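tool_log.txt
---
The assistant was asked to compare two proteins side by side. It first ran the structure predictor on the initial sequence, then on the second. Raw inputs and outputs are pasted verbatim so the downstream comparison step can read them without reformatting.
(1)
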Amino acid sequence: MSTLYGICRSEGPASRGDAGLRMLEVMDHWAADRRETSEEGGILLGHLLLETGAVRSEAGIERLDRLTIAADLRLDNRGELLHIVGIDPVRASSLSDAMIVLHLYRKSGIEGLSRLIGDFAIAIHDPEAHAMVCLRDPMGVRPFHYAILGNDLVFASEPRGVLAHPEVDASLDEDFILRLMAGLPPDPDATFHVSIRHLLPGHVLHWQPDKLSIRPLRVLCIPPLQRFRGPAECREAFREILRTTVACRLPETGPVGVELSGGLDSSAVAAFAMRSVSDAERIHSFTNVATGDVSAVQPAEDEWAYASAVVSHCGIRNSVRVSQGVWPDPFQPLDLHISDHSGVDIISPFWLEPARRLMREKGIRICLSGFFGDEVATHPSRLHYHDLLDDGRLLLYLRSCIERRDYMLPLRRLAGAILPAPLVRWSRKSTSPVSADYGYLLGTPPSTRVSQAEESLRPFSHRRLLLGLATRLHARRRMQNESIAAIRHRLVPRYPFADIRLVEFILSLPAEWTGRAGTDRYLYRSSLTGIVPEMVRLRTDKHVSTGLFPVLELKAVSQELRRQLSEIGASHRHPLALRLDFKRIDRDLEPGRPDNWWEGGFFPKVPFHILALARYFDERRR
């Protein structure tokens, strides 16, 4: 893993003043194994390397002819790329992943970079074109932030690197903050600071002294359907691609950590990791467990019973039980989140902090996570049969509806197809609007009111639902933010379920093989027979730890948050500020309310970022 940064000036040298040095000092907060910089004219590139044992992918700043690259990069399709650029695999054994990318860019230009598969954030300086080309992987695993300063560009893996540049405006983005407070998603590329943006996943940023463009290069989509001879062949294909996505994320040498929760996703990752290494001592599992008395803010169920079954079944020799209650200060996870992001972002992996500290103590540099499985790979497939209609399997679709006693939707679709258009429009208008929960806003924005008739007649597709989950803001920002938080521990998180090959494979499956009436995650569960213990493969009672929020402590400082946001509303009359429901925030922080409890524990409905904002504004006041 690497972090990178750069300065692109339209006029004058890039190293004007001490901007580059300041960015380097701020970015090297985790003590890189190697630091490199390259400067040519108005372009400065910086690269900080963390050695992980993945020899071929670990390189600093690389050069080919006049091209220069700095990359946070792990490639999964080296063989395919070598064939495209015409390099013999034997001769290429000494080439880094970054050098292969340069060969591809030299041969095929920007469009050729759409063939890259893996986790990456890349910056290529092309002096002949007077251009800087920046690219981010389609799943958004590796972070990339940038700021535009007139005709100049500043970028870095972490927002702190961009903010270190003395010309970058550090003003807060009020719209971003208020959207977080309202429970609404911010703009996809927005950050806590108005001048800093995210480069969206799968997008390319092309900078030249007189212009800048950002466009999608490769984004996730639904591919053509695959065909299988039967469910057994489909299950085998699923097992093989999941095994591949785990194996390619294992380094050649050194210990590897696995975040093992006892759920199906992390258990599958642990099992395939053990099957992919010759030395079982390399795999270390880490499981968060409840310790001591189970109080009102502790989980009602300890996951260790399931995790220990996986440890025994897979032969994991190094397993660690991690206590959630190791925070010396209840505000520490919030302060770490604010420090990592130079403000507040929409999600924080703070519950992983204790395990990652232990991983660092054991010299682990790579950790595998089951995250993103729920988004697509293991999302409940109880509605998969609706795709049969899109696939032209009408009789099979009707039979599936009858098996599941789902009669209304096909009747509504049929009515929408055969009734005269005026009658359909009249039925939609005559239906009362659906009430919805729009976070901490008062009332419902008029533009979001949807009638029940419109909702019922809207074509439904399970594949499009999965595509929406895979591309939603929360999932991608979480992976990005976990990378930013993990580098502090000299650790690289990797997500087999976020492999674009696996996601597109699942989106291409024929509906008749992906589900069965009465069984959630049918294909996934049946594919893991013998891979994980039966008690894990068939479990449906996965619990979420609720002892993670310093709720009572934060309630005491929430008044300062209210004051700050009220000032924003009064001074700028921002439409969102005028709609915030502070009484609801107070209600959702109250442990005495029964509806604030879930699965036997107090589970505040106030999102983490709202609590972090309270802490942030309280610290500013002091």
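(2)
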Amino acid sequence: MADMHTLGLPDLGAAHVNLPPARLVEMALERSEATLTDRGALRTSTEPHTGRAARDKYVVADSAAQDRVWWGDVNQRLTPAVFAQINERVAQHLAARQLFVFEGWACADPRHRLPVRVVTENAWHALFAHIILRRPTAAERAGFQPAVTILHAPDLQLDPARDGTRSGAAIILGVERGQIVISGTHYAGEIKKSVFSYLNYWLPERGVFPMHCSATLGPDGDTALLFGLSGTGKTTLSADPMRQLIGDDEHGWSEHGIFNFEGGCYAKCIRLSEASEPQIYHALGFGSILENVIVDPATRRPNFDDTTITENTRAAYPLEHIPGAEPTGQGPPPRHVFFLTCDAYGVLPPVSRLTREQAMYHFLSGYTAKIGGTEAGIKEPSATFSACFSAPFLTLPPMRYAELLRERLEKSGAQVWLVNTGWTGGAYGRGKRFPIAVTRRLVHAALAGELDRAEYAADPMFGLHVPTHCPGVPDDVFQPRRTWPAAEDYDRQAQRLAKLFRDNFQKHFGAAPDAVRAAGPR
């Protein structure tokens, strides 16, 4: 892989390499990159980019990548010649600045470690890399050779007319050359997700199923996976005092078991409270980062309810800040897999047991629903289908990951569940959202085997196998139609959602096996 000289950068001796978190915090404050909260977290701003620049992601179209990458809106082609020009511009920009370097691993399993070097112009971004990647020991750092180098130049705005990009920001993956370039955006999630996208390209060829999911370990050594898009409760449900946290977001599933890609967590923290999510709340002390959270200038206390800057406020914190987190970041093959969906249409039951074909169907569909703000009154929910619960980060075609899921399910015998963390008794604006306590109770019942002993009824529209009873949960919620004030309103809404499922699947996965296509809504 390319060294610093071939990347056009000065020798690492001129950079701040692998500084401890305390020094990175000091330097971030000295350089006015951040301020300190009352409990010692760094508070930073990433405006105007307060989320991923999804339309500015590119993959270098090297000869080997041409036939493998899932080209389209997610992965836009960039020619090697254009990449070389942008890379030179980024290297020149970084060479004129004080640099911070962090070297760490992706992947907790030593058999699949990916050495990553992050070169950035900000101390706080180096701290973010220190949080998110796994941290080698001093002995492991000796002779460190990166397989992937990230050149991170957030202060450099590209020129679309000159550089051939859509905007001043660009996230470019050179998947065959072990290089990633990020320019024009301070949003730290781009570092995290560019590594994930690279792993989605690299790991399948090594027999590993990369997953956008959280993972927990039970007292009996049982692993559970929770898939879900943003806002479905993946991080919240995985922060469970009854189970050890393996990781909250990105994992691999090999023939040996589950392993976390990361060394830290990057959670949405809008409306975070000590009462509802105590583990995450107490994790946000010294060595953590708050992005775009409003902080009282007098008390330095974060106001997690304030959306002045964005709804997408974020908190980054080391995994070890969560009490009882599994230090190895590994676990055995899972017994249970949960697909989380926030159904704002109020149609889906709170939990359903899926067949293998249904699991493939719902994995490829990756359904959840987004809701608008309420400032101008109630708005209609909108369905979102994100293949494999991870479309923005997939580098290969979705069917490749679905095949890996099928293989792993067949070998492990894991049971798959569809869990609705959204609305009941009506759609968003009329019904109410399932309380987190109800969802936790259902997940725990599945993990404990209680739902294995339950009676099941088939949902007539979606074909889902729904339990009729679970202790501690009202029976009515298992039949969503009965919770609506008018059954005919439920029928119309259910038909509407079913059609959205069918249309999406036909458009993107019409060539899927017949048994999988038949596993969707009727």
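---
observation on (2): The longest strand covers residues 209-217. Confidence is low (pLDDT under 50) at residues 373-378.
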